[in-house]
Design a protein that fits this description.
The chain has 75 residues and is mostly helical. The chain is 41% helix and 5% strand. It has a two-stranded antiparallel sheet. The two termini are 14 Å apart.
């Protein structure tokens, strides 16, 4: 299950979940631009699924992602 992909889907229930996760400070839904001209060194990757970083949404830590994934599997 690609949790970040699910969270960015536009269905109202999923948006409610995303908004709640942002409110609880578990995810960030405003990832800064990765434009190479804005970075002194090499810019970060646009996506890093291993760390839970998507184009528009990122988990605060991989631990948060795993905790929410386990909670959703129980539902």
């Amino acid at each position: 299950m690609k949790l970040l992909k699910i969270l960015t889907h536009s269905l109202p229930e999923r948006m409610q979940l995303l908004n709640k996760l942002v409110e609880l400070n578990l995810v960030v839904d405003d990832v800064p631009s990765r434009d190479p001209d804005l970075w002194v060194d090499e810019p970060p990757l646009e996506k890093d699924p291993e760390l839970g970083i998507g184009r528009h949404v990122a988990w605060q830590t991989p631990l948060h992602r795993e905790a929410v994934k386990k909670a959703l599997q129980k539902v």
